[in-house]
């Protein structure tokens, strides 16, 4: 790999007026990071025809259904007097309607759980933005592949084995890094429809590392995934896990409901097992894939994320107990 392939360049792309409502802040440009043949960007573009068809079949999404559901959800939220949200932003309302298949009451309940979770775990969420969480990204144990899988899903990779130095990076930091990535994915119409998959790479997990996992951490993660994430997490793939990972998973099992439990798949080092769910053309070589491109580092994503601090500040300005400023 040449030095040029490793070197990153940041460009700023003007957000078209028709896509501006997707953002909660007044950002009018979106950063794009390029290196070699790889492009990292927040994909704000409207749904492609394939994604529109998925939305119609799986989410009941049509222009008429969407228009009526937005109106009903807005009316329902007006009754939540202690909840401050961007009621006039249709794109924001659709962000919560899509994972709920455009049922307004379900979307209202998801919004309430989403913000209640933030209140309950204020120590994680208060002032959360990329510029304050650089450590997790520089540790390079958390990244999102620049491509999507064969179903259009974002692919989050978490490496909590030999790359994880527990003296330098806490599990709380890992959680906050995941939140930052998923909050950004929530801006993307295609991610709202197709969702995301997670690859947990546990290669080299040590006994000492397993002691960092606690029941309270496990419950927080499971509560977040099951009830509080406005994004469809379709599968969680556990790869390269050693035998001692059973000790870690035992902490999570009591909190898992059947739906999420059924989406967690254990592959070990069996790449054919992983490929039953993820096409090799969408995976890097280390997972038996055929995408021979430079590996995206957490630090390269950080370059993009910190340029979106203003959007994260806007995201943080809504919720329960938030001052409403005219």
Helix content: 40-55%
Low-confidence stretches: none
Largest sheet: 5 strands, mixed
Per DSSP, the total helix count is: 16
Structural class designation? alpha/beta
SSE ordering:
HEEEHHEHHHHEEHHEHHEHHEHHHE
Distance between the termini: 53 Å
Radius of gyration: 19 Å
Number of strands: 10
The strand order across the widest sheet is 5-6-7-8-9
Which descriptor suits the 3D outline? globular
Q: Could you tell me the strand content as a percent range?
A: 5-15%
Q: Name the average pLDDT.
A: 94
In short:
This protein has 326 residues and is of the alpha/beta class. It is built from 16 helices and 10 strands.
Structural summary, described in words:
This protein has helices at 3-6, 49-59, 63-78, 90-97, 104-120, 122-125, 134-138, 171-185, 189-194, 207-210, 215-228, 245-252, 258-261, 271-275, 298-306, 309-316, and strands at 9-14, 29-35, 38-41, 83-84, 142-144, 154-159, 196-201, 233-239, 264-268, 319-320. The mean pLDDT is 94. Strand 2 (29-35) and strand 3 form a beta hairpin. The chain starts with a helix and ends in a 6-residue tail after the last strand. The protein is globular. Helix 3 (63-78) crosses helix 4 (90-97) and helix 3 crosses helix 5 (104-120). Helix content is 42%, strand content 15%. It is of the alpha/beta class and 326 residues long. Strands 5-6-7-8-9 form a five-stranded mixed sheet. A three-stranded antiparallel sheet has the order 1-2-3.
């Amino acid at each position: 790999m040449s030095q040029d392939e490793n070197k990153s360049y940041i460009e700023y792309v003007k957000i078209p007026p028709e896509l501006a409502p997707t953002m909660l802040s007044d950002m009018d440009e979106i950063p794009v990071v390029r290196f070699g043949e790889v492009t990292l960007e927040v994909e704000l573009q409207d749904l492609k025809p394939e994604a529109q068809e998925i939305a119609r079949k799986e989410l009941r999404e049509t222009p008429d259904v969407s228009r009526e559901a937005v109106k009903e959800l807005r009316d329902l939220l007006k009754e939540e007097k202690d909840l401050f949200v961007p009621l006039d932003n249709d794109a924001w309302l659709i962000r919560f309607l899509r994972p709920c298949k455009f049922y307004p009451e379900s979307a209202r309940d998801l919004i309430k759980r989403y913000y209640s979770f933030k209140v309950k775990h204020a120590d994680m969420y208060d002032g959360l933005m990329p510029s304050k969480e650089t450590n997790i990204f520089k540790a390079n144990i958390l990244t999102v592949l620049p491509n999507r899988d064969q179903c259009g899903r974002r692919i989050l990779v978490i490496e909590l084995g030999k790359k994880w130095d527990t003296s330098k990076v806490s599990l709380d930091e890992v959680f906050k890094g995941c939140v930052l990535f998923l909050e950004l994915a929530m801006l993307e119409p295609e991610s709202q429809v197709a969702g995301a998959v997670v690859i947990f790479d546990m290669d080299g997990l040590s006994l000492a590392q397993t002691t960092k996992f606690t029941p309270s951490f496990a419950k927080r993660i499971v509560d977040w995934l099951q009830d509080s994430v406005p994004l469809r997490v379709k599968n969680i793939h556990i790869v390269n896990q050693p035998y001692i990972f059973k000790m870690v998973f035992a902490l999570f099992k009591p909190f898992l409901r059947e739906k999420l439990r059924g989406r967690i798949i254990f592959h070990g080092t069996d790449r054919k097992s992983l490929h039953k769910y993820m096409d090799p053309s969408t995976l890097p070589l280390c997972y038996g894939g055929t995408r021979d491109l430079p590996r995206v580092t957490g630090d390269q994503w950080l370059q993009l994320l910190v340029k979106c601090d203003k959007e994260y500040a806007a995201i943080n300005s809504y919720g329960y107990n938030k001052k409403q400023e005219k």
